[in-house]
Amino acid sequence: MSVKILIKREVPESKQKGLNELLKEMRTFCTQQPGYISGETLERADHPGEFLVISTWQSVDDWRKWVISQERQEVQDKIDELLGVETRYEMYTYH
Questions:
Q1: Percent of the chain with pLDDT over 90
Q2: Strands (E), 1-95
C-alpha cells in the first residue's frame, strides 16, 4: 500500500534560497530510491514562508529505508541546521 509523507516548514525569507538548493539535492537522491513514486514542494498561498513537501512511496518500508540512508541523513542534517529546528514527518496511508 502506498504512503504519503508530509513535511511542513516555516522558512524565513532569508533562508529560502538555501533551503531550495538543499531540497533539490534531496530530491535528486530521492528519485533514485526504490519505491519512490513522486514528490512536490508547495508554498502556502495565504501564508508566505510556510512550505509543504509531499512525497509518495510504494510502501512504508521503502520510506523507512530512505529515511535511514546516509545520503539522505547528510542532506537532512544540513536542512535542520539551516532552519534551526528538527524536521518532523507525518505519514499517511490510503483507506
A1: 97
A2: 3-10, 36-43, 50-57, 90-93
